[in-house]
């Protein structure tokens, strides 16, 4: 039986696409459990939106909905483009679930940094997370995924 495809933040899949050129990979147990049930489709909205790697860290200002880099560049267009392309991938492949990296200005779900570059978290979603949710995609962060798949394992 074919496994359903699932969209995953590329940095969770060992791809070194974070702003600092590193990854945020899952532990191998979680990865194997994920692969048992799903076919992962790795996507980095910031790279497909045209940003380089490495790059300056960015934060989303939740009130203005603009994304700025730590050196003051407004990169909102890149973030919106990356979000739209990630949504297109979901639509083209019939993907209904996404697992996105927490706290990121693109991928974060529920809590993100507040735009002041002072490590202050506020309620909100990253640009891609927000667009996927508003288009009916079920989004989990990596911590929710672990609870989800380890829960399935125990059934
Ligand atoms: S945009 Fe998403 S996938 Fe890309 S590095 Fe940031 S958190 Fe990871």
Chart the SSEs and their pairings.
Blueprint lengths: L4 E5 L18 H10 L1 E5 L1 H4 L9 E4 L4 E4 L6 H18 L3 E4 L10 E3 L7 E3 L3 H8 L3 E4 H13 L1
Parallel strand pairs: 1-2, 1-5, 5-8
Antiparallel strand pairs: 3-4, 6-7
Helix pairs in contact: 3-4
Bound molecules: iron/sulfur cluster.
Shape: globular
Query: Ranges with pLDDT <50 over ≥5 residues?
Result: none
Strand order of the largest sheet: 2-1-5-8
- Supply the number of helical segments: 5
Q: List how many beta strands DSSP finds.
A: 8
Cofactors and ligands? iron/sulfur cluster
Quaternary status: single chain
> Helix coverage percent of residues?
25-40%
Structural class: alpha/beta
- How would you spell out the order of helices and strands? EHEHEEHEEEHEH
Distance from first to last alpha carbon? 20 Å
Strand content: 15-25%
Q: Report the biggest beta sheet as strand number plus sense, adding barrel if it closes.
A: 4 strands, parallel
Rounded to the nearest angstrom, the radius of gyration is 15 Å
Give the mean pLDDT: 94
Domain count: the total is 1
Give a summary of the structure in a few sentences:
By secondary structure, the chain is of the alpha/beta class. Helix content is 34%, strand content 21%.
Please explain how this structure is put together:
Helix 3 (76-93) runs parallel beside helix 4 (127-134). It is built from five helices and eight strands; from the N terminus they run E-H-E-H-E-E-H-E-E-E-H-E-H. Strand 6 (111-113) and strand 7 (121-123) form a beta hairpin. The protein has 155 residues and is α/β, with parallel strands linked by helices. It is globular and about 50 Å long. The chain has helices at 28-37, 45-48, 76-93, 127-134, 142-154; strands at 5-9, 39-43, 58-61, 66-69, 97-100, 111-113, 121-123, 138-141. The chain has one domain (5-154). The two termini are 20 Å apart. Helices cover 34% and strands 21% of the residues. The chain binds iron/sulfur cluster. Iron/sulfur cluster is lined by residues 9-11, 17-18, 44-46, 101, 104, 106-107. Iron/sulfur cluster binds at residues 9-11, 17-18, 44-46, 101, 104, 106-107.
